[in-house]
C-alpha cells in the first residue's frame, strides 16, 4: 500500500508541488508530512491536496488556504 498526495490548483488541475513529494507507508505518515510542509506548498502555488491510497481517492480536495486562515486567525487576502 502506498499513500500519496495529489497537488492541485484551486480549479482542480494538477500542479507540480514546491516540495518533493513522497510515497508513505501509512495514512498517518502522509498526514504528518502534509502538516509539516503545507505552507511551502501553498507559497509554491498548490491550493489544495487530495490524499490517495494506491491511486484511489481517500479524501479531498482539502484546501491549504483554509489551513492558512485557521493558522493566522484571519481570512487570507488574495
Automatic annotation (TrEMBL):
Compositional bias (Acidic residues): 13-23
Chain spans, region Disordered: 1-29, 52-78
Organism domain of life: Bacteria
Biased composition (Basic and acidic residues): 1-12
Protein name: Uncharacterized protein
Species: Streptomyces qinglanensis
